[in-house]
Amino acid sequence: MARRNRPERRPTLPDARFNSSTVQVLINKVMTRGKKSTAERVVYGAFDRIQTQTGRDPLDVFQQAVRNTTPVLEVKPRRVGGATYQVPVEIRADRRLALSMRWLLTAARSRNGRSMSEKLASEFLDAANNTGAAIKRRDDTHRMAEANRAFVHYRW
Fold it and tell me: What pTM did the predictor assign?
């Protein structure tokens, strides 16, 4: 683990259709084995499905889903005198986005049947409406941080 300086974050170029860097990050996270065109097809297919089902702008639904699943606090283990405490800490902005995307994708992948674009679209719609597995994951994380609030003085 590098202790001196953190490397610079490379800026993510925006995607072709929506000109949004957040959508490009999603495409990169959906991508497996370097198949970017397949990942783009899945993500844009999910957005088209959201457009036809709800009539709303799919980018707004996606951004609302990301906002709803973004955590504010998490717990990190801290060892103090032989005991390990779960200490609640605030999350950096880039990690918040990464966790939100990861939770949305794992929830979509764990859904039953159908194509990946359908599962992704339904998970985005659920998250935008404050339901679904990704929202449950965020609530569990916040609940754990709230339960361990007594150990906040062990923060470093």
Answer: 0.91
Cα distance between residue 62 and residue 57, in whole Å: 9
61: number of Cβ within 10 Å: 22
Closest CA to 61 of 107, 129, 109, 14: 129
Cα–Cα–Cα angle for 29, 96, 127, nearest 5°?
A: 70
Residue identified by tokens 């606090």 is: 73
Length of the chain: 156
CB atoms within 10 A of CB 79: 9
Q: How high is the pLDDT of residue 1?
A: 63
| Residues of the chain with confidence (pLDDT) below 50 | none
Q: Which two tokens stand for residue 38?
A: 């397949």
